[in-house]
Amino acid sequence: MEIMAATELSTKLPKTDQEYLLTLETDVNGTFNTTYDNGILYEVPTGLVVILAMLYGAISILAVLGNGLVILVIVKNKRMQTVTNLFISNLAVADVITGMFAIPFQFQAALLQQWIFAHFLCSLAPFVLTMSVSVSVLTLTVIAVDRYFAVLHPLKQRFTKRTAVILVTAIWIICSTSSLPEALFRKVIPIYPKPLVFCTTDWPTHPPNFAKAYHLYLLFAQYLLPLVIISFAYLRIGCHIWMLENPGIAVNNQNDIRSRNKRKVVKMLLVVVCLFVICWMPLQTYNLLSEIWRPINEYKASIEKGQNKNRQNNTLGYIEHILDEL
């Protein structure tokens, strides 16, 4: 009976998940079927549910309200509508979208372990999440490049507002296009005999290794390349500002004020970049390992031979969902 249930479950899932479930069936000797009969794939302690609910709620509210205020201030104040602030407002828009559309769906999927919303949202939510992350990263990269030319090459022509609008539009087009696989290959799959519905990814088998290639592309485009560009830009800016702080160089009050303001802006952006690196490194590492080392996803089985061997992997999975929004 247990083998029949596991076999029926595997026939409803994409090939990659079928292979995983076949391995799971052998490893746990029927324990997975017992867990599935209860309607869950892994146990979630009540205390952890409360903590996660508070974290997700706080992150979602702060993301929407905080970034919404940034957008409102820039829109209402014409003096604030500079090229840099245009990029910052674009960053805020991406974060508002994440807070409104991505966070609630990610949380319910992790907590309830099934899909309870409309089927089209199964494709829309991951698409929006991937797109907003890509928009944020590319915008941070463009800001770093703009600051680089403003500080190190002040006499050269900088980005105009028209150029900034074109860049922002291009960023959204590029990110929307590159995120399409998340929408095209997501599907809702009913699991029988239990009335459970899962939102999963059905990656194409042709070309082979499409999923691995796509996730490696996201790793490169969302993290590695922007990290190199941003680090180079701010390293050069930091060195340049350090050289300008030579005490033997006399400056008047006006230039001193401008220099302090410029340093404040650079420090603020540098803090944003450092937080981005720290928060996204664990997730990007996990995503890479999930493609090249399948056993890291064994947290999907809550009990293996009567022992909770996967608790650390569970924690990593929860951290992933939280870091998605940071």
Describe this structure in words.
The chain has a single domain (2-325), classed as Rhopdopsin 7-helix transmembrane proteins. The chain has helices at 2-11, 15-28, 31-37, 46-76, 83-112, 119-152, 161-178, 180-184, 210-244, 253-292, 311-325, and strands at residues 186-191, 196-201. Mean pLDDT is 72; it is low at 1-37 and 299-326. A two-stranded antiparallel sheet has the order 1-2. The protein has 326 residues and is mainly alpha-helical. It contains 11 helices and 2 strands.
Q: What's a concise summary of this model?
A:
The protein has 326 residues and is mainly alpha-helical.
Sketch the major β-sheet: 2 strands, antiparallel
Whole-Å distance between the termini? 44 Å
Count structural domains: 1
Can you tell me the CATH class? Mainly Alpha
Q: Would you tell me which CATH topology applies? A: Rhopdopsin 7-helix transmembrane proteins
Number of helices: 11
Average the pLDDT over all residues and give the rounded result. 72
Looking at the overall shape, the CATH architecture is Up-down Bundle
What's the helix-strand series?
HHHHHHHHEEHHH
Alpha-carbon Rg, integer: 24 Å
SSE layout:
Blueprint: H1 2-11, H2 15-28, H3 31-37, H4 46-76, H5 83-112, H6 119-152, H7 161-178, H8 180-184, E1 186-191, E2 196-201, H9 210-244, H10 253-292, H11 311-325
Antiparallel strand pairs: 1-2
